Amino acid sequence: MNAKKRAVAATATMLWIFSPAVARAHHEALFGPQSSLAVESQGFASLQTHVHAYGINGQETTETITIVSGGFSPIANVPWGIALIQPFTYQTTRVPTPAGSTGPFSACDGCFRMENSLVSTQYRFDFTDLQHAWGRDGNFALLSAAVEPPTGNKDYRPLHGPINFIGAAMTGLERGAFSTVLLGYYRLNTPDATSSRKGDNFLASIGLAYTPLDEANAMISFQLGLGKEYHFRDVANGARVDASGGSEYLVTPAIVGSPLRHLRIFATVTVPVAQAYRNDGQVDRWRLGTGLIYSFERSAHEPPSAVLPPVHVD
Predict the structure, then answer these.
(1) Which domain holds residue 243?
(2) Does 168 reside within a domain?
(3) pTM (2 decimals)?
């Protein structure tokens, strides 16, 4: 199994709310490099590292994913954002594919590669009545979409792989020091030139956060993500692979702090509490993540952040 590295370890680029002067939600999203899909900011930059371990019974694989991302809001006072995410992966595995082989199921031992880039766009809808009633702007809905062109060199030669797509929708509620976010996420993998592809991936999750300290230059938030992830069967040379795919339940505790104005630092761990995969190579073991996000000045629309379990994307 090749857990689509870059998203797999759950990037935690988040739906950040960096403005230090406004009441805001403090869920920090944890669903892969595409978490930047939900970032709506006047401008942000992020550097993150995630480790994902999966596979059992001689099929163990570990991937360390480093993600550089940034985004901006092109029109002032319009809650529309654009983000660019670039992951890099270092992979070790006990079941590498032959040297020089390519495709959605390729794997390498001790290699460092550039993953495909992600270009995303998102739009936010505010629940203004709730925002006024509860005095918090973390009451909202958000739609996002992303395209993944074959720019990397991990599974294919650059510009020779398929183009994949991602869509997500979420809604948030916030009152006082407590907030929650609901997320639905779908990744569509398209066939390559041999009619092979990893199975599509779907995630439904809820994020909960308690933020006891929320000052202009200091913030700390304790968060928990709960979710179910489903992986459809793979396809090899046009035929469905019956011994593939499955589902799992994930629990993701996280801590987020803001030691300086505009800067957020986070740490997460994700544990599969129950899973049912048809292939030992896809069994999830654990995921760790850490990183920082810096926000530039924001527009009048302040997006909340969201705590969600990371996406184990195949």
Answers:
(1) 5-295
(2) yes
(3) 0.84
